[in-house]
Amino acid sequence: MLQNINELSLPKNCTITDIVAKQGQIINCKHVSRDPYAHPDICKLKEGVWVLRNSLTFPIIMCNQIKGVIKLFNKITAEYFTELDEQNADGFGLVCGVVMQSARYYRRLEEKYMFRQILDCMLSRQSKIPECNLLHYKVPDSLPLVENLLTFKFNPYDMIGHDLVSYIMLIFYKLNILPKFKIEEDIFGRFVCGIFKAIPKLPFHNELHSFNAFHFIVLLTSYTNIQNYCKLTLTEILMLLIAALAQDMDWRGATTPFQFIRGTSLAALYTSPGMVEKTGYISINTALNNA
Description:
It contains eleven helices and three strands. The chain has helices at residues 16-23, 40-43, 83-126, 164-174, 177-181, 185-197, 207-223, 226-229, 234-245, 256-261, 273-289, and strands at residues 27-29, 55-62, 65-73.
């Protein structure tokens, strides 16, 4: 129909659709060829192709606001749309608005449910976390694999099967962080253990991955000029190292159905998304503070 038309210049904000969208009134165009807003290139007949004869344009009303416009073309059983068609269109526009409002409402519920699933997974995993291996922690005098611990020759993957908390405490001691801030060894050990308790045992995001990131930051601050370049204080280095250890805390790694399959049904006990969120944050903070 428009194959021989190179360019169409439609007046901005002057079409029937624009008028209905602004005023919210039904426009029944019984004869398009006589309508002042109808574009001649669109309405004219080209080699027997469908021609636009009449149209009925009406708004979609949602919460007393215009949210869309529906346009019907070429009534089949009559020459044009009647007043009865206008009444039906008015009601149909209201129904469409109700459907859109309901869809929007349920979309928000779905988003809240997804957010709740994330937090529920976190709480479910918290219920499956094992306790710390030791009751009291002290900086060890000697450890296996301690050779090259603070050098680039050290391979963190050799730590598989070893108690990472003891090695982390030894590194903090060698960096003079524990003596400098007078941090009690037992409290610090329980704190690190609390971090590991909040890290899931997944194939990639696990305790060893956190230790690898932590060890890299240790070497970065010890063997490069980044400490002087960034003017990092000892407090900032402490924060950076803790952040490296805790980077994967509460990484979900699974869905709520997966947690149910594992036998953890704690998520089903909560019905309020806000309560789940608050409980999750309180659970993490309490676990770290009590470490």
